[in-house]
Amino acid sequence: MPKNGKKTFPCLHVTTEKGREKFSSALRISWIKSSIFLGIILLAIGLTALLILKILNVGSTQLFIDAKAFVKEYGLIGIFFATILAGTIVPLGSPALVVAAASFGVQPIPLILVATVGFTIGMTINYGLACSLGRPYVMKKVGAAKLEEISVLWGKWGWIIYTVFGFVPFLPVELLSLFCGLIKARIDIFLVLSFTPRLVVFTILTYFGGQIGGWIGIV
Q1: How many domains is the chain partitioned into structurally?
Q2: What is the pTM assigned to this prediction?
């Protein structure tokens, strides 16, 4: 009991202080800045490539006709395994793969569901490995500096930072899935917040890919 006889509420004080933290402070972390910068560069390259394909009218070439038939036949299987690997911090660029598959005419709803489920499985594998193998495994995958920074981010925002990373395609949410496993975060919340943001993201990207395919003349 304090000297003035009044009760204090440390947890409320901490929550208030956290609420004052600007979310933009996370953008000053080097590997987050690098991820955003790399994402912008890849987006610019992708848009340039699309413009070139449009100018060259590649949609009518036999090569693209054959590629379209192959992707429509086997694309969902490839997307499923690719998104699983992408969820386990193998940099396969699952958003770009979803856009490409949609642009080649893969059916939207199966594509969205397969990509989302595959990515969620990959994230869950990360969670399980980190949970069972512990800190040495996570340190090896993430590195001491990143792990400390992730711990600070989680201390400030918790599931909010995980959700934000899930909604931004080029932010490495896979690293956070390892941290979730390390601290044994609630698995039900983890699954919901792994699945839902990517469901939204892959829905948008599938629509975008379908528009690209029509614009280029592939679909």
Answers
A1: 1
A2: 0.79
